[in-house]
Amino acid sequence: MKKIIVFLGFCIALSASGQTAGQPEGKKSIHLKQNELPNEVSLGYGYGSLFMTNPYVHHTFEGYPTIDNQKDGYTPGALTIGYNRGLTRVVTFGFVASYMNLYYDGDYTSSDGTYTIYRAYIHDNIYSGIAMITFNYVNKPVVRLYSAVGIGVAIAFSNITGTGPEAVRVTKRQLLPGWQLTLIGIRVGRSLGGFAEIGAGTNATLSAGISYKFGD
């Protein structure tokens, strides 16, 4: 009987030591390094969109003659919201949505035979979505250097208001190509960090914001 009790005690002790030995490995798989967290969401602001250049967005409206002397548009900037998923430590894939409001003005000539020149005011509300692929040159827990490229589409909701005596407000909608190239970007921080980018495209030339990284 004594031998049986000793044998059972030995088995229990062996089982407990095996479970204890396995615990550190489980903890290792849970606590990832900051640069290994696969998901990232971002909120940013950008300026210098190609949509500001005339005539990237076409402003021809039914009921209005050709708009002349139209200058490049003015915008307070673009608001961007993004998500990235790390495929490897070097490559991530994601999506960026943006919104911007642009203002233009120009001249048009009346069609009543008097050839009077009136002023026209144009507003564009542009929503875009771009699929992005990012390449990391440096991917450390606190600092990341990268470049990115993406293509997508944009929808412009435009309206014009003339200053002539019979002028009416006319609206139109158009689908436009969207693209973005980030020549160089930097992110600094751990889970919560800030980023800045220089590039070109329909979203922005210069952009900055904050981002948050998290695991699955």
Can you walk me through this structure?
This protein is mainly beta and 216 residues long. The chain has 2 domains: 1-31, no CATH class; 32-214, Porin, CATH 2.40.160.20. 13% of the residues lie in helices and 56% in strands. It has 1 helix and 8 strands; from the N terminus they run H-E-E-E-E-E-E-E-E. The protein has one helix at 2-30; strands spanning 39-47, 78-86, 91-109, 117-139, 143-162, 169-189, 192-201, 206-214. The protein has an 8-stranded antiparallel β-barrel with strand order 1-2-3-4-5-6-7-8. Strand 4 (117-139) and strand 5 (143-162) form a beta hairpin. The protein is elongated, with a radius of gyration of 29 Å.
